[in-house]
Design a protein that fits this description.
It is built from 17 helices and 13 strands. The chain is α/β, with parallel strands linked by helices. The longest helix has 20 residues.
Amino acid sequence: MTTPKTFSKISSFKSAGDLRAYADELGCALDFEDEILSAPDSPLAGSFEAGGFHFRNRFCIHPMEGWDGTLDGNPSPNTLRRWQRFGQSGASLIWGCEAVAVRHDGRANPNQLAATESTKRGLEQLRTSLLNAHKERYGTLDGLVVGLQLTHSGRFSRPDEGKGLQSQIAYHHPVLDPRFGCDPNQEPVSDLWLEELIGDFVRAARITADLGFDFVDLKACHGYLGHELLSARRRPGPYGGDFESRIQFHRLLIEAVQRDVPEVQIGVRLSVFDFVPYKPDPETTTDKKKGAGVPDMENVQLPYDCGFGTLGNNPIQYDLEEPIRFVRLLKDMGVFMVNLTAGSPYYNPHIQRPALFPPSDGYAPPEDPLCGVSRQIQAAREVKAAVPDMPTVGTAYTYLQEFLPHVAQSEVRNGHVDFVGMGRMVLSYPTLPDDVLNGRPLQSRSICRTFSDCTTAPRNHLPSGCYPLDEFYKRSGEGDRLRSIKRGE
């Protein structure tokens, strides 16, 4: 594994000031505080109230698909271990731990969890294991809020072992259709199909509430169905075309959950902007190395009409006019919080999950990943400024590594975001929030260096985990297989 020579590794910087100067050279706007503060002085230790919940700090754990459930949608021992570690993290907000499909054909992989009558006991076991791990470490459950993310994977559905993609598309996409082998004659999902799917979400929300989860996340991010509908300008009928039609599915879904499961709060994880799909630069790609990502414009006509939060005449820049309108609508409808992310891991991962090292199906970073961090932080600032009374969770902090708390403190202190979310970081270093809040030195050997094995593994049908740093995965048979795959064996 070689480091891209044009970008400096985060671990090479000795201080927050040094990294700030480097970010300034890149033209990436990032604010840092010079010192990591502990509770009660840290802004990250501040309490917060939203949705009738009390949060005792500002750390959030993002949902991450583990690819490690059973074929019938139940958790495995690996899933239980992961949720227990999230419970030990010290974060006050657990945003669903991972995406849970509301029905079989919406699973993103054959081992994805599902929220059905047959999996209730397994989901209950997951929640209980997380709560028990948290209480054992901290002595209380006060200030801990746990949700469950509900999803249908749409275009990226892969529910059955050995069958590959079984896409359910909202509309035909000029780049994604040929890239992922979508039959040009395939009919997009019907209006009736979408209306029946709302019923599946409601049933899953009822299960979630009955099990005692505090909220449901009605997922609208990362290229999955809820996100794709937001860009469905090419879809005829009541669920596509103009803005009001493209948000109609979400409006009806929220209303249905509020009507039939009134005791559960609703959150939404939203890709607040998107870019045109990227591909490895064919001129610099070799048998041994993928080129840097470049926009895949071969079948694209401008203005680009297949993005949400995308500038039509320049689809590698964001335009937050519609996303802000949508967030304002979510607030007016009673959604208690939004978790702001971007793009998709399938077709433009560098904007969604900034990393120095690409996953096996990706491309070398086309920009210093700090610029990707800055872009998401800036977009979250703009949403918060436009809808200040909507509580928000920010994303893309993991790439900051040792300096994550320095930037997180600044963003929370200045009211740019209410919670700082972490995903990959807690796979390798689940107790980072607790260490920060209690003034302990960061464990440098546990800090995620964005090697992307947690993505490369599931792309090769292995469970997701931190294979370089977590001994549990590193020494496993799956770890041996992943290393063999990466060597090209």
